[in-house]
Design a protein that fits this description.
Layout (H helix, E strand, L loop, with lengths): L10 E5 L11 E9 L2 E5 L6 H14 L8 E5 L8 E6 L3 H4 L3 H15 L4 E3 L6 H14 L16 E5 L9 H23 L7 H14 L4 E6 L1 H6 L3 H7 L7 E7 L8 E12 L19 H16 L4 E11 L11 E3 L5 E3 L7 H13 L5 E6 L3 H7 L4 E5 L2 H13 L4 E3 L17 E2 L7 H10 L12 E5 L5 E2 L10 E2 L4 H11 L1
Parallel strand pairs: 1-7, 2-5, 2-6, 6-7, 10-11, 10-14, 13-17, 14-18, 15-16
Antiparallel strand pairs: 2-3, 4-5, 8-9, 9-11, 12-13, 15-18, 19-20
Enzyme class: hydrolase
Cofactor: Mn(2+)
InterPro entries: Leucine_aapep/pepB (IPR011356), Macro_dom-like (IPR043472), Peptidase_M17_C (IPR000819), Peptidase_M17_leu_NH2_pept (IPR023042), Peptidase_M17_N (IPR008283)
Length: about 500
């Protein structure tokens, strides 16, 4: 499978070259700011007098709310050639002028509200960061997944024009091109997550990565360990998880190395459980409804490496996609099994539905062998993290304060909310095993933290020294089961791609 129809591959982003008042497409997006019942129009440049007069006359009767991402449609505004104007809330006067979070969310909501046809955005922004937020938000709001539809015109090409009054020194054209690359790869991550699990399994996921890497403008290398290589290489964690399925596991290594050799090297490890039944510790049927999304970590890692290569970031990035299907077949793993991991650690299996940490641990051990400066793992790992932080915030655990702070700061810039969580040393004892080096699961209380403590054991070099590492538990925000909101669609969200790219850019 390649990138399905309905992704941002069918959405073109371009920089407006004329005044937005002369733009003659379907929907023109302009902002409104205000509070206390008083609102005012804000655009990327002054609103034409005729249009401003008309809007001033009709706004009082609309009872507008300037809350971020609320929308109102006004047809045929005099002085503007667009068929209709979409007014979108940017918040208060203070927050509405220059806030990237407000701009990203407003742009996404406005494009979705505009419906079919071409869209132009003339939202106010002060700098390149604001322009990037508008462009990325707009592309995100345009996202649809129609790969499994037999006939659907929603996948038709969507033209999005972004108007800016930034001068050439701010390189607005380059900002739009950068945003296009980010949006395209976030969209690919969403496509992978949204694909039906009978079509996306370890081998087809592998083939999708190979095809995208081959077609990419970035210099990418792909290596694949199949089930035979995994068994011979001592990858007991992922081999054990995948042994209950007729579709065997894979570890795909996707690498980007810039021309300069004197750059940081970051290893990204992604959980790629293409469907999770829980194994013999079977989930209830309702708990399986979204388990096609249990590979969202691997999708985010793959998309990040491709985007880093296409953007030419001066950072070496290697992605390890740990792909398996967790099924209750006749040869499935059992509670009380003991397996030997890639780094030689023996692990007692207590719950076959805690499989994600096992595939990640093997991937982290493999990543450690390359001597990276950092290891970051991304996973839909624990329901406990969702209970703690809700469905829109991901947790961050780390053995390094600098790495943790960099990830949380990057997530804020990307508008992918996160929260740091501890790794309490007193909980480590709950992972002790009487029959193996370590048990893979601790007590029920603090389940997200003990999962992090388990993974921390594998962020070590051959001498047993810690490698700077962070664990991103994206179980909550990786899949939106409800209605679309702001710039976030229903289904796969592509969360963590933006955060990881911001983090990598910061290292550069």
């Amino acid at each position: 499978m390649t990138r399905p129809k309905g992704s941002s591959d069918v959405t073109s982003l371009m920089l407006g070259t004329r005044s937005y008042s002369a733009w003659s497409g379907r929907s023109l997006v302009i902002g409104v700011v205000g509070s206390g019942g008083e609102v005012a129009v804000r655009a990327s440049s002054a609103v034409p007098k005729t249009a401003a007069k008309h809007l001033d006359a009709v706004l009082p009767s609309l009872d507008l709310d300037a809350k971020v991402a609320t929308t109102t449609i006004i047809p045929a505004v005099p002085g503007l050639k667009a068929d209709k104007v979409v007014l979108v809330g940017l918040g208060s006067h203070e927050a509405g002028e220059g806030g990237t979070q407000a701009l990203r969310r407003a742009a996404g909501a406005a494009v979705r509200s505009a419906g079919k046809g071409s869209v132009a955005l003339a939202l106010p922004h002060d700098d390149a960061a604001g322009l990037a937020a508008i462009a990325e938000g707009a592309a995100s709001g345009a996202y649809t997944f129609t790969a499994h539809k037999s006939a659907d015109d929603e996948g038709a090409e969507r033209e999005i024009t972004v108007f800016s009054d930034l001068d050439r020194k701010a390189s607005p054209k380059d900002v739009i091109e950068h945003a296009t690359t980010v949006a395209r790869n976030v969209s690919w991550a969403r496509d992978l997550v949204n694909t039906a699990p009978n079509l996306l399994y370890p081998q087809s996921f592998t083939e999708a990565v190979q095809k995208v890497a081959k077609a990419s403008s970035g210099k990418l290398t792909v290596k694949v360990l199949d089930e035979k290589a995994l068994a011979e290489g001592g990858f007991g964690g992922i081999t054990g998880v995948g042994q209950g399925s007729t579709r065997p596991p894979r570890i795909v290594t996707l690498s980007y190395t810039p021309r300069s050799k004197k750059v940081p090297h970051v290893a990204l490890v992604g959980k790629g459980i293409t469907f999770d039944t829980g194994g013999v510790c079977l989930k209830p049927s309702a708990g399986m409804l979204t388990m096609k999304s249990d590979m969202a970590g691997a999708a985010a890692v793959a998309a990040t490496v491709v985007a880093a290569a296409e953007l030419g970031l001066p950072v070496a990035v290697t992605g390890y996609l740990c792909l398996a299907e967790n099924m209750p077949g006749a040869n499935a793993q059992r509670p009380s099994d003991v397996v030997t991991m890639r780094n030689g650690t023996t692990v007692e299996i207590l719950d076959t539905d805690a499989e994600g940490r096992m595939v990640l641990a093997d991937g982290m051990a493999l990543a450690a062998e390359s001597g990276p400066d950092q290891i970051l793992d991304v996973a839909t790992l624990t329901g406990a993290c969702v209970v703690a932080l809700g469905p829109k915030i991901f947790g961050v655990m780390s053995n390094d304060d600098t790495v943790r702070q960099s990830i949380t700061s990057a997530s804020e810039r990307a508008d992918e909310p996160s929260w740091p969580l501890p790794l309490p040393t007193d909980l480590r004892a709950t992972l002790d095993s009487a029959v193996a080096d370590i048990a893979h699961k601790g007590d029920r209380m603090g389940g997200a933290l003990t999962a992090g403590l388990f993974l921390q054991e594998f962020a070590k070099d051959a001498k047993g020294e810690n490698i700077p590492w962070a664990h991103l538990d994206i179980a909550g925000p990786s899949f939106n089961e409800g209605s679309p909101w702001s710039h976030v669609p229903k289904g796969g969200t592509g969360v963590a791609v933006g955060t990881l790219l911001e983090h990598l850019a910061g290292l550069a």
